[in-house]
Write the structure tokens for this entry.
Amino acid sequence: MIFLRRPGFSLGVFGVLAGSAIYLGATRIPFGFGYDAVGPATLPKIIASGMILAGGLCLMELKRPLDEDEPIIFGRLLPVVTISVALLAAAAFMETVGWIPMAALVFAAGASAFGSRSYMRDTLLGLAASLVVLLVFSYGLGIRLPLGLLAPVMSLFN
Amino acid sequence: METFLSLLSGFSVAFTLQNLGWSMIGVTLGTMIGVLPGLGPAATVALLMPLTVGLEPVSAFIMFAGIYYGAQYGGSTASILLNTPGEAGAMMTAIEGNAMARNGRGAQALATAAIGSFVAGTIATVGLTFTAPLLVDLSLKLTAPDYFSLMVLSLASVTALLGRSVGTGLLALFFGLFLGTIGLDPQTGQGRFTFGIVELLDGIDTVVVAVGLFAVGETLFTVANLDGAREKIHAIKGSIRLSRADWARSWKPWLRGTAIGFPIGAIPAGGSELPTILSYTLEKKLSKHKDEFGSGAIEGVAGPEAANNASAAGALAPLLALGLPTSTTAAVLLAAFQQYGLRPGPMLFDTNPNLVWGLIASLYIGNVLLLILNLPMVGVWVRLLMIPKPWLYGGILMLATLGTYTLNGNAFDVVLMWVLGFVGYLMRVMNVPIVPVILGLILGPLLEQQMRRSLAIGQGDWTVFVTHPISALLLVLAAVIVLMPIIRHLRGARRIPQHQS
């Protein structure tokens, strides 16, 4: 796979394709009104052209002998996926399930991705930390974090 | 004299018990988060931004100033003891500092870094005090096309000076500029590139980008390349006092580092990377102990650390006086100003002198507080480095989620943070510089505004950018900076086949 063996090639192709897509998108921006001389589509078009040029430049800069290029090494992907799933789940259920369980999930998932195997301890620690954060934010700073499922419990303390 | 009086009034603002308290909280939190491995000052300031919501602007910025300086100090502790520079500016400190720590001289490395940062920070803050008003006078003479070209120059130099290839640097820059166009066009109210997502109409927050690309991206990259080996923290042995010989070898590098760091920090040259490299090279050249370089020369810590802190103060001059960020951290600070509906620039000195001068005065105070925090209490910060990695990164991810969520109380920002974190991971994997993305994102909308204002003045005539002499000069400079490496590359590429034949 040339895409993996030559990062410059992948980036160049990305620049040209993304730039073209942005240019196309920019042509669909309706022209504004008023005293504006160039309208809202001009800068996006310039940026798109710049991106295509930059992509071309990446392709030009490719090192001649192939083996001098550093191949792309993604590393271990499982922990990356673990953290990603936890963050997306936190975003999806933040309002309904609430800050405390979701923040604890992010903490525990992060810890397990970094090799910790004491899931119970990590979860408890995450719960404790997110509770402290919630209390500091709501009582100290007046910033509301979603209580979610714990709303009935927390209301007892008010 | 006028400057002196303004500074005095600034001190009267900063020296209230309340603001001293915020400054203290700021430097403590800044050091605490900055000391965590892999988190540089920009990510630290971005992560801690929600904490200032609900404060008076003056108090909030005094706290920010503390966080900003604190993150600089904390970053050097992590570099020295753990060899994990959070930002390019700490890389040079990590080389000699970590070598010193390996030789059991970690305490001295930390001491010269802390005292050097104090000396440099204080001198550079004096520099800031007197150059900022001069820059304000200068900026009043600049027209819209000049501002436009100044930003182009700023972006061009960041792109060309950082990173190994101009192509990837430009790609990162244009990606950042593109992110900056997402949302409602401020002049016509047209939505751009929102893909039908309502949350994108407000645009993408700089804080989300900084936290995503730096904190989350760095975490994903670290976890993907985890080799299981425990990093070694080098215990601090003995007293943190510097010996007479250490003082003798440190004070000149501190002053030289300051002299290099402040001016380069103030010009658009990409922040602290360049001055720290220059300082390191200079100290290596001037040192009587050249053989020690690479295995723990104290000059190699003293100089770059001073340069790093001086450039941090230097970057505040164009930020406050022109509204022009020259480093990522300054870009995040600009975002903080914008969140309070404030526009840094010449007008801010007129409309909000208490804030500007209170902020500058608090930098002097913050420096003193940091010296106290970092010399006798360094052991406390070292403890933070001993937190097991799983908990450390679990905590960083939790902080990142907290920071982005509380920004607008919107879970969509957390999704965006993950997307950008993944992009940051890919960029790290492919060796694409991240700084141009952040500067492109924050400067893009300002650049567009000045561009359209210039064209409105010139009635749509693009030559307006070259008929104004200052603007023309700045554009030529920008073109030279970008084209030089490309031409050099093309020449080099042509020469190789000749050699082979």
